[in-house]
């Protein structure tokens, strides 16, 4: 049986930038496939505003007359970039709209989560990340996170350098599903943290309830070991002891987790147990994001996936990350149709 712990992909700098595209589930999504709720007029208004924004991008030259490759190139950008920020809670279609904007934009562009961009800086270094992205017409940042001050400052600095180069920006962030009233404050937090860039961002509100109606973290009952083995008897599946996986993640830079999953069709974990170390937990969050992006089913025995993170972790500073990871892992275990 193949194992995830046998996979240690090498750093491919060009691929890290090429992989900054919307997840496969959004390959076919466009503004025309978004279905605004008639009871929430802000949704239709958001589609119209983003379509206008995309049309405006078409009139901004990407200044690539002196361009070279992804790295070592020089760009002249005559116009400072503008930004647009989608403000709303879970399940109102912000990622769908952000991906639609990316599809509508022409020229060089990138799409990634906040964590993917911070991991890119960790893998390439700040200067090379700026160089790799400064020739893009549009950079989309999904799920902008404000729970790590160091990463927030890093991203704000990166965005400042990109706007100076004329790159247009689009971003979203999420509030917790149980955080009543926080949806409207997300934009205020975002604009405060990016400070000098705030005047360059227009806020677009997307109201509405969570269309997925995921108001709990209920996970399916754990499988027994025999069931996990049986479920992963397929081409491309990997099977590991959960502790071995968490240890292996520390040996692979998070920017390479996507490459580590190349060709994987299913993941099996035996002896799942609670994660008590913060560093281990944050690496598991990144893996959960990449599994979810690729829609790879998860089969697990041991502790229910909804209980991987302790109540203390779910109440702490990184709780948004942990709630997202639990939601995504349990969805993959349930086989939800997304």
Question: What do these coordinates show?
Answer:
With 338 residues, the protein is α/β, with parallel strands linked by helices. It has two domains: 127 residues, no CATH class; 172 residues, P-loop containing nucleotide triphosphate hydrolases (Rossmann fold, 3-Layer(aba) Sandwich), CATH 3.40.50. Helices cover 40% and strands 12% of the residues. It is built from 13 helices and eight strands. The strands form two sheets. Strands 2-3-4-1-5 form a five-stranded parallel β-sheet, with helices on both faces. Strand 7, helix 11 and strand 8 form a beta-alpha-beta unit. The radius of gyration is 20 Å and the shape is globular. InterPro entries: ATPase_AFG1-like, P-loop_NTPase. This is Cell division protein ZapE. Keywords: ATP-binding, Cell cycle, Cell division, Nucleotide-binding. It holds the Pfam family AFG1_ATPase. It comes from Pedococcus ginsenosidimutans.
Low-pLDDT parts are 61-80, 177-184
Mean pLDDT: 86
Over all CA atoms, what is the radius of gyration?
A: 20 Å
CATH superfamily descriptor of the largest domain? P-loop containing nucleotide triphosphate hydrolases
What is the third-level CATH name, the topology of the largest domain? Rossmann fold
Order of helices and strands: HHEHEHHEHEHEHEHHEHEHH
> Which structural category do the helix and sheet elements fall into?
alpha/beta
Helix percent reads 25-40%
Task: Please give the number of β-strands.
Answer: 8
């Amino acid at each position: 049986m193949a194992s995830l712990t046998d996979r240690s992909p090498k750093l491919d700098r060009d691929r890290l930038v090429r992989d900054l595209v919307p997840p496969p589930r959004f390959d076919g999504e466009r503004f025309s496939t978004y279905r605004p709720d008639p009871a929430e007029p802000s949704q239709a208004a958001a589609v119209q505003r983003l379509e206008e924004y995309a049309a405006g991008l078409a009139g901004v030259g990407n200044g690539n007359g002196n361009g070279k490759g992804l790295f070592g190139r020089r760009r002249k950008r005559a116009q400072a970039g503008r930004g647009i920020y989608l403000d709303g809670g879970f399940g109102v279609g912000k990622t769908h709209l952000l991906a639609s904007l990316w599809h509508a934009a022409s020229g060089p562009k990138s799409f990634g989560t906040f964590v993917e961009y911070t991991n890119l800086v960790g893998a390439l270094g700040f200067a090379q990340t700026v160089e790799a992205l400064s020739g893009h017409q549009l950079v989309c940042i999904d799920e902008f996170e404000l729970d790590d001050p160091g990463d927030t400052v890093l991203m704000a600095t990166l965005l400042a350098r990109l706007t100076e180069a004329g790159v247009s920006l689009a971003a979203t962030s999420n509030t917790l599903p149980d955080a009543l009233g926080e949806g409207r404050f997300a934009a205020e937090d975002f604009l405060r943290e990016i400070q000098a860039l705030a005047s360059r961002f227009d806020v677009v509100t997307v109201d509405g309830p969570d269309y997925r109606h995921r108001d709990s973290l209920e996970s399916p009952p754990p499988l027994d070991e025999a069931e996990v083995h049986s479920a992963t008897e397929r081409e491309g599946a990997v099977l590991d002891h959960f502790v071995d996986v968490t240890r292996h993640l520390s040996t692979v830079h998070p920017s390479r987790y996507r490459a580590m999953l190349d060709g994987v069709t299913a993941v099996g974990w035996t002896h799942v147990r609670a994660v008590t170390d913060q560093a281990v937990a944050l690496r598991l969050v990144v893996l959960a994001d990449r599994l979810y992006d690729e829609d790879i089913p998860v089969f697990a025995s041991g502790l229910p996936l909804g209980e991987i993170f302790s109540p203390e972790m779910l109440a702490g500073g990184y709780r948004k990350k942990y709630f997202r990871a639990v939601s995504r892992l349990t969805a993959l275990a349930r086989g939800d149709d997304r």
